[in-house]
Amino acid sequence: MSITITLIIQGLAFFATAWIVAKYIWPPLMQAIEARQKKIAEGLAAADRGQKDLEDAKAQALEIVRESRTKATAIVDQANRRANELVEEARGTALAEGERLIAAARAEIATENARVRGELRTEVANLAVAGASQLLKREIDPKAHAQLLDELAARIAAQR
Predict the structure, then answer these.
(1) Which of 119, 123, 133, 136 is deepest in the core (most CB within 10 A)?
(2) Alpha carbon of 104 to those of 39, 101, 111, 123: distances in Å?
(3) Cα atoms in the Cβ-side hemisphere of radius 13 Å centred on 155
(4) From residue 61, how far is each of 69, 93, 143 by CA, in Å?
(5) What's the CA gap between 13 and 118, in Å, rounded?
């Protein structure tokens, strides 16, 4: 056999194999490669979207935390102001109650003072009558001399 025939047969076999590969093997292989590339591109796009969504979620979470802290600070400040208001209100109520008790005590003292002074005037008047009766050596009737005793009590009160 000659080399020419061998080359021709090998060339025909090569072209037949190339044609079979191009007709039956190459299109499904290219479709599989393109499908794989498409899947990879979609996966990368999904990863990018996921990364962007993650960054957005982190930013949103930080904003929510910042807002929560601001609200919590506002609530604590409001609670402190209310507590101070309650303390001041209680202090005012306590002062008013204390002043009321002091006024009541002063009124009671004034009443007791007036009563004791009245008793003291009566006792001084009785002593004066007793002293006068000793001086006059006779009994003075307090009922008969009521006006005289009242004048005596008034003079004693005026001297004080």
Answers:
(1) 133
(2) 94, 5, 10, 28
(3) 9
(4) 12, 47, 99
(5) 151
The string of DSSP codes covering 45-114 is HHHHHHHHHHHHHHHHHHHHHHHHHHHHHHHHHHHHHHHHHHHHHHHHHHHHHHHHHHHHHHHHHHHHHH
The number of residues in the chain equals 160
pTM here is 0.44
Residue 13: C-alpha distances to residues 19, 29, 114, 139 (Å): 10, 22, 145, 173
pLDDT in tens, the chain (160 residues): 689 999 999 999 999 999 999 999 999 999 999 999 999 999 999 999 999 999 999 999 999 999 999 999 999 999 999 999 999 999 999 999 999 999 999 999 999 988 888 888 778 777 777 777 666 655 566 666 677 667 777 777 676 5
| 90 φ, ψ (degrees, to nearest 5) | -65, -40
**Pairwise CA distance, residues 22 & 123, whole Å:** 145
